[in-house]
From TrEMBL:
InterPro entries from the UniProt entry: AB_hydrolase_fold
Identification of the protein by name: Serine aminopeptidase S33 domain-containing protein
Length: 222
């Protein structure tokens, strides 16, 4: 039973950073961080943290939506403010290479939710190997479905649930009881009814190709 309200961990930070806040006292920096999967697929992203902080410790992982990227929508601004004002380290990345000339197994697919989960698994494995401790998944749109699907494929002990206690609302608080083996899930604008997605995402020509051959080339641009 994954706690749907585990976003309590993130509530104070999110409300504060998305509204009018005081001028940041700290400076945040973006450090490129690449993940190479066993298949050869390359996941590019950045770690956002306060300047001078060690590149280890608790970290939030952001998962973007369809036709989006690590810097799309509110993610870039949010990660900067979380770092500047609350000292929260984060990692945002682009899901697998999505250009049409990429190798088929490395392409970003409209139906590739299992691929997305595989990418998330590679990210978590790499971060942990380098001394980071992912404590929160923040998904947006398709990314929300990705982190929820990830949760269904892993032991429930890995995630915060209704029986877990949180003594503090932010891991930047020294008294926060951090558990490196517990991950909170935050989902924003997750997908529910997919019935109309095909007519809003695909062209008539692409839909015709799907009807005829079962698939189509889905070019995307970030």
């Amino acid at each position: 039973k994954i706690k749907s309200s585990s976003a309590i961990l993130f509530r104070k930070a999110f409300i504060k950073t998305m509204g009018k806040t005081a001028k940041p006292v700290f400076k945040s920096v973006d450090t490129p961080y690449m993940v190479t999967k066993n298949s050869g697929a390359l996941l590019d992203g950045v770690v956002t943290s306060r300047e001078g902080e060690p590149m280890v410790g608790p970290i939030i992982v952001f998962a973007h939506g369809t036709l989006s990227s690590a810097n799309h929508n509110f993610t870039d601004e949010l990660t900067q403010k979380l770092s500047n004002e609350l000292g929260l380290r984060s990692y945002r990345f682009n899901f697998r290479f999505d250009k049409s000339e990429a190798e088929p197994d490395h392409r970003y697919k409209f139906s590739g939710y299992d691929d997305d989960v595989s990418d998330l698994e590679a990210v978590v494995k790499s971060l942990r190997a380098d001394g980071y401790s992912p404590w929160c998944f923040f998904g947006h749109s398709r990314g929300s479905n990705d982190v929820l699907l990830y949760a269904t494929k892993h032991t429930s002990e890995e995630f915060l649930n209704a029986d877990d206690e949180c003594k503090r609302e932010s891991p930047s608080d020294p008294a926060y009881r951090f558990d490196a083996n517990k991950i909170a899930l935050v989902v924003t604008a997750p997908r529910f009814d997919m019935a109309r997605m095909s007519t809003t995402i695909f062209t008539p020509e692409q839909l015709a190709a799907v009807e005829e051959t079962g698939s189509c080339v889905w070019p995307t641009q970030r």
